Every structure is written in C-alpha cells, then in structure tokens.
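Appendix B, example 12.
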Amino acid sequence: MMNAAHHGRIEPVKLLLDLGSDPNQLASNGRGVLHEAAWSGNVEIVRLLLDRGASCEVRDGTHNGTPANWADHAGRFDVRDLILEHSNDVFSLARFGKADRLRVLLRDEPTLATATRSDGRTPLHFVESNGTGATVIDLLLEHGADINATTDEGATPLSAALARENEAAMELLRERGATE
C-alpha cells in the first residue's frame, strides 16, 4: 500500500483498504501511508485514507514529521491544509496558522495549549507570522500557554522566532509580553 500511495495509484490503495489493510500501517522507517500520499500530493488518496481512519498525528522515525509536515515540505499546500482540517496536532496547527481548527480543539481540551514536545517546545514555539499568527497566539494564551515557556535548552517562543528570523512573529510575541 505504501508504494501505491507514494505513486498515486488509488485503485490498489482502495482495494487493500477494502480487504482490511490498516490505513495507519508504518514502514520500517516509521513513515505511514498518509505520509507517502501527502508527499506525492494525491488529494484523492489522502481523502480516502482520512475517511478510512488514517491518523494525522503519526510522526515519521527519521524527521519526526507528520503527514502535514511532509506535504508542506513537498510544496503540496492544498494537501497539507486538507490534512490539518482533520488534525489534532496543536504544534502543526500553530505552525501553519490553523486558528479555526485550533479553537475547536482548545474548546474541547484546553490543556493542549500547554502541551510540550519531548524537547520542551510548546505550540507557541512554532507560531509563524502568517495572517492568523496573532489569533493563534491569543488562543493559546487564553487557554493557559506560557508566553515565556522554555525548552530543555532554554529557548523561549521569542528566541525560537528569532532563530527563524521571523520578525513579524517576534513582534506579535513581544506585543503580548514575551521576553528572551
């Protein structure tokens, strides 16, 4: 199924799913079928996999990326956005400015605003300055996020934006009280 998804062959993917294959099966490198479909940019296969229960949150074993991250890296922004409509990954939702989906998740589970990755990064460490950056920051803060949370190595959301040379995100964070 991995090969078929990677090469955009929907009929074999559909047949294997109909025969009971797991839409969340992983290759030995930790990539899932949805990663492969996201990379190739096949919207039909991505929709099929999502409809059949593929998880948007699975991170590959090499780059620690979700299917949405893979689609973004491949320049498949329509596929990235489709995946994010189904995602519960607050880190990716913050990074890609998906305020509406984030609002729904935080309404149902406010503690997601204070989630941390294994290195201590919070959703605020990923915020970009896209058109919804301010809304994303405000949503996270309203639900208990710490504007000055530090990673295991001492990075704050502001210093993370500085490292990405993202002046607009830095300004948004400073306006809300962030310090390095």
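The chain has a mean pLDDT of 94. Residues 63 and 96 are 18 Å apart (CA to CA).
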